[in-house]
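chain below, 605 aa
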Amino acid sequence: MAQQRDIIGGHHYVDTDRNTTVFTSVMMQLEEECNQLSSLSDECYGFVQKDLSVNSFPIFDVLRKSQKLCDISIKVDNKSFMAHRVVIAATVPYFHAMFTNDMKESTQTEVEIQDSIDALAMEALLEFAYTGRIVITTSNVQSLLIGASFLQLFTVRDACCEYLKIRLNTNNVLGVKSFADSLSCDTLVEASKKFIQKHFKEVSKSDEFLGLDLSEIIDIISKDELNVGGEEDVFNSVMCWVKKDYNTRAPHLPNLLTNVRLPLLSPEFVADYVITEELIRSSHACRDLVDEAKDYHLMPQRRQLLQSFRTRVRCCNDIQGLIYAVGGLTKNGDSLSTVEVFNPQTNIWKMAEAMTMLRSRVGVAVMANKLYAIGGYNGSERLSTVEVFDPKARSWTKVSPMNCKRSAVGAATLNNMLYVCGGYDGISSLSTVECYSLDRNEWSMVTSMSRHRSAAGVVAFEGQIYALGGHDGLSIFDSVERYDPQTGKWSFMPPMRTKRCRLGVATLKGKIFVCGGYDGSTFLQTAEVYDPKTEEWNYIASMNVMRSRVALVANCGLLYAIGGYDGVSNLCTVEVYNSEKNCWEFTTSMAAHEGGVGVGVIPIN
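prediction:
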């Protein structure tokens, strides 16, 4: 068998307690028989020695090592291993199938296994079959994974995968992914993909990246979840890959650039680096893609007509960010300018720079790694003003105000544009929608929603803006509508299962989550999830407390429900939802807020 290349470091010891589980069904049957016997009469007594298998297997192993009572020889790479047919049939699915079916090996005293496993791996896996223990190291993990997969020892296979997962790095992850893919180790493949997406910039500089084939490169660079400082990182990685083998790879450049989001490149980068590349200048297809990017920058008023997946900003859900809680209310219901920030790595809230104005019921969104506080209520009037926080400069500055005053407003970022939907202007609920262009520092009106929605949830999802729930001053809605920037139209989507205003909404792992709110009679602690594949809403685990005016945000694969109002008092508490466990758990409470905050996440650089 070919020598496997080392791709990790360290060692790992596994004890699966296999001996206690091999005969579980037999023992359960014996216990049932015992119970039946003991229930017949006082003269019947059933006895079960529950540690029989635990005490017996060490003896089997001693017999194997001394080659006593062995009745089968397993030959691998011209090396033979003596064993007991009945033991390995009981503990190794591959041998169970071989010895209990009408295969010629079922009657042979020697079985030879060729090419599928090496001798050292077979020795370790036979040891595991008798003892339930195996030592995984740098030098044997690949051969053990191959052997365990072949013998269908899935507990060992999974242990090897876990060993590799915690040792992934930028130099080995592509090799691990390819290796895991060849063995259908889905969990390891998925972990490798997430690592590549999370550390794309560093991985793209590795020798393994430059050695990938075209389909593998396209599979990586086409993902929305790539963690990049800017699309420049993706463009540079593609050009490095092409130039590594110029003659062979140059013809593939148009296909590659189709998956690079050229409109998201800065105008300066396009002018200085993209259009100066001879490979691009000499290709009509490449020049067409560059022209698309130029139009996007030169004619911002037409951007809504130029929307495609190439204008969709990438977002990696596994990246940790700092959670900013903005504005909100005191215990007495007064508006605040206070801002505090939560670091999920330390689980600590700290004070951050306060806004220039008091704002409760404020809309919050993040664009270009900056935090926008939009509208709100200062204690006496609704606001149209907008200010932005730069975490590097640690300061707030005002930008152009909205066309309308809005509190209880929802905000979301899509394709480097900031959208605000509905809200309350002090007189009535609003249906109007505005869009902010960073380039022009200007707000423009776009198509209004079908409903007047105050205190609705607003979120960007799959290239469109969703407005969920809210109220019009008379009715509270379960309805959901979405805005398509390409058509400029709103359309209704499947409604939520519960009417909700003042709800929290966030997207995670390709789904929309909502929680809390108020239905007109009850402050809610229920939560729901929308799956676009089934186009259905379903309930998930409820929060631990009722939360109206709750802020919901996704960070590093988890959902954070922050603050709110439970019908009696404003809340400073925070809950975290784990979608894999379907449960909410409390984490550190806010230090300076009592509910009603707006929330945004700025990635940690």
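Residues 24-38 form the longest helix (15 residues). Residues 1-5, 12-24 have pLDDT under 50 and may be disordered.
thats it, cya
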